């Protein structure tokens, strides 16, 4: 096949409804990366369940999807509350009979999350906050979704994390440590859940150009204006800008049939900031 035809066919496929009629849950979908993922999955034909704690923002994303001709609904649940997440997934399965896709985002960069903090300046409560937001929030969603997917012996799970889980970064010992644990968990689960026809992969990112940082409580030596010093340094080191839509495209790839032969992998979408192996 001529190269130009191959390119055209590849481009056409990205515009096909590759997720037509799939039931997809996107956690933390009320803003930024989660919102972008919800919009992209809906564009590809999925019926998207938009999750978040803020009902007003969640319904705004649902309206945005429906205005574009897609299908969506809102489900409220705190991702750090295991029982609330399990109940949410139960309601989804009760309404739709199944759950096909999970994109586990959110919690890690919400307004009540800690930012860059030097290890020796942390309190014990800080450790728990990082672990809950960057790891346990994903674990709760993945466990609940996988329980539903096992019944149909098929499912796609995508966990969104940070490259701090792959690359040692000053000020992100527990952000990176918790995310690194989450990524290792996903690699193990790829083996465990694969027997049930479930694929699980991760997308890692660094600075996102169109996502306003919402953290507070970082170390003064690193933070400047709420982390602005570290953020400016990241921007300078990146070769290409990365936007929420770029992370969403990667998540949609892992959610769709194009990635059926891939599981247990982490894809860094970081604009060339680093090249982890």
UniProtKB/TrEMBL annotation:
<dbReference type="InterPro" id="IPR002347">
    <property type="entry name" value="SDR_fam"/>
</dbReference>
<dbReference type="InterPro" id="IPR050259">
    <property type="entry name" value="SDR"/>
</dbReference>
<dbReference type="InterPro" id="IPR036291">
    <property type="entry name" value="NAD(P)-bd_dom_sf"/>
</dbReference>
<protein>
    <submittedName>
        <fullName>SDR family oxidoreductase</fullName>
    </submittedName>
</protein>
<comment type="similarity">
    <text>Belongs to the short-chain dehydrogenases/reductases (SDR) family.</text>
</comment>
<dbReference type="Pfam" id="PF13561">
    <property type="entry name" value="adh_short_C2"/>
</dbReference>
